[in-house]
Specification:
The complex is a heterodimer of chains A (about 240) and B (about 280). With about 240 residues, chain A is mostly helical. The chains are: A mainly alpha (about 240), B alpha/beta (about 280).
């Protein structure tokens, strides 16, 4: 791709990418650390995660302001237009991912004193690991402008959904075994739901990257496999 | 057309005029293998382009790319330049405009033109507009002529501003008003095709907006081809856009697609400001 005749325009676009990468890095970090806080029952770490979320929020605001200013001053066209609008969309998704990680950290505080059922924790760990991999891949797809990679991330989300479904069933069973498990199970359930939502936002980013590179939206319907809204384990 | 532009066109159709969907309109102008030579130098290379009726087609491209040359082919204005030779076929309403039996004066009556700088005659506003109908014998009586003048001013959105000074010189109007006077003059002879060569480049943003509003209005009845250096203007006023570069028609398509997702790298580079 040739450079813009106006150099400052080129620099602004590069700055936008840099900020998105920075924001993505922070979101990844938050999510990874929220798992650590949960597993290690580390209230201090959890507090840190909650406090560090404002850095992601600040970046979102900065990117938003820059996008508005660029639309007003540059009247972007074609791939520039898709780049700038794409950045705006991605920043919203990354901010939400940060919020979800923060929420997991908060929940880890609430259940720090309870005993954590091991198989369920393993399930959560796998979900986070996959969500992190997906997030990393989609951020790479963005910086490399790789539509195929974005498409792969988009397809892969079904795996997170499947993990969530099975974890959901396990948690229900665990709650039925002993009502004293309901407290921790509910928090873990919301935690798992948060990770599933992270996957959805990552998929949104993948869609945006695809549009940004190719200029049209991913045509076929995204594979949706979250069945928990219709799942019930009968007690009798 | 991809999904997005389809949705966009539908949106326009439900909120705006029903004629916005250019796809259904028949072609007013069809061009095949049009080449133009100035002496030995070839300025335009085998251009194939179809222009739909009752719609606006924008021609964009860097200076010297041949877009104005192409525009001037459509009313045979290049005939006036010695050394200039046009080859290929251009049909307006299915009729070859290079047919030796065709009367060039009559052709130019059917094809109106508006230029970069407003160029009213040094006459009254009335006479500026009455000039064309007079020489083409379109008015049988004085009241006929008055009717044409008033109707043209009305269509050009100028009537309210000048109705009290219609016999004052046209050159006394502001730049934007002069340009709309020129548009009124062009439509007074009831043309079918209106060619505009950078009609707003000498106008301020408000006058530009008024001319653009007028173009929007006129496209309900006329086929308009506009050359513009303003990408935003092309994006705003046209339904289809053609991009010229070095005398070649590089890409032509639905305007929304051209400005969000052009197919050719040269188009991309030009509209995003990447040409060295």
């Amino acid at each position: 791709m040739n450079e813009h005749t106006v150099k400052s325009y080129e620099e602004e676009l590069a700055l936008l990418d840099k900020k998105i990468a920075q924001m993505g890095g922070l979101a990844e970090q938050s999510l990874g650390r929220s798992l650590e806080a949960l597993e290690r029952r580390d209230p201090k770490l959890a507090e840190e995660i909650v406090l560090s979320d404002h850095a992601i929020d600040d970046l979102e605001r900065e990117i938003e302001e820059q996008v508005i200013s660029m639309v007003a001053r540059r009247q972007p066209m074609a791939d520039d237009l898709r780049h700038i609008v794409g950045a705006l969309r991605i920043t919203t998704d990354l901010e939400r991912i940060g919020d979800l990680a923060k929420n997991i950290a908060k929940r880890s505080l609430a259940i720090a004193d309870e005993s954590h059922p091991k198989p369920l924790m393993t399930g959560i760990r796998h979900m986070v690991e996959l969500a992190l991999q997906q997030l990393k891949d989609v951020l790479d797809a963005y910086s490399e402008r790789d539509a195929e990679k974005a498409l792969a991330v988009w397809r892969n989300d079904a795996q997170i959904d499947a993990m969530y479904n099975s974890l959901f069933r396990e948690l229900l069973t665990y709650m039925m075994e002993d009502p004293r498990n309901i407290g921790i199970s509910t928090h873990l359930l919301f935690g798992a739901k948060n990770i599933e939502r992270v996957g959805d936002h990552t998929t949104n980013v993948a869609e945006t990257v695809h549009y940004l590179v190719r200029g049209f939206n991913i045509a076929d319907e995204r594979p949706k496999d979250d069945q928990t809204s219709s799942t019930l384990i009968s007690g009798s | 057309m991809n999904e997005q532009s389809k949705a966009f066109t539908m949106e326009i159709n439900t909120t705006g005029s029903a004629d916005s969907d250019t796809v259904i309109n028949p072609y007013k102008v069809t061009c095949r293998k049009v080449s133009v030579f100035y002496g030995l130098k070839q300025a335009l290379f085998d251009v194939d382009l179809d222009v739909p009726d009752r719609a606006v087609m924008a021609l964009i491209g860097p200076s010297g790319c041949g877009k104005s040359t192409f525009l001037r082919c459509l009313n045979r204005m290049n005939d006036t330049i010695p050394e200039c030779r046009v080859t290929g076929e251009i049909k307006v309403d299915g009729r070859d405009i290079h047919d030796p039996e065709l009367d060039v004066v009559e052709l130019r009556g059917r094809v109106g033109m508006v230029f970069q700088k407003p160029n009213p005659f040094p006459k009254s506003i009335f006479d500026n507009i009455a000039y064309g109908p007079r020489i083409h014998g379109l008015a049988r009586s004085k009241s006929d002529l008055e009717e044409i003048v008033i109707a043209s001013l009305e269509k050009a959105g100028l009537l309210a501003e000048v109705k009290d000074r219609i016999h004052e010189p046209g050159t006394g109007l502001s730049g934007g008003q002069q340009q709309r006077l020129c548009i009124a003059r062009a439509i007074a002879v009831n043309p079918e095709l209106i060619l505009m060569d950078e009609p707003c480049s000498a106008l301020d943003p408000i006058a530009t907006a008024k001319v653009e509003e007028l173009i929007d209005e006129l496209k309900k009845n006329y086929c308009i081809v506009i050359v513009t250096h303003s990408m935003q203007q092309a994006a705003r006023v046209s339904q289809r856009t053609a991009f010229f570069h070095l005398g070649v028609l590089v890409e032509e398509g639905v305007t929304v697609d051209m400005f969000t997702n052009p197919k050719d790298k040269r188009t991309q580079d030009y509209i995003t400001g990447r040409f060295g």
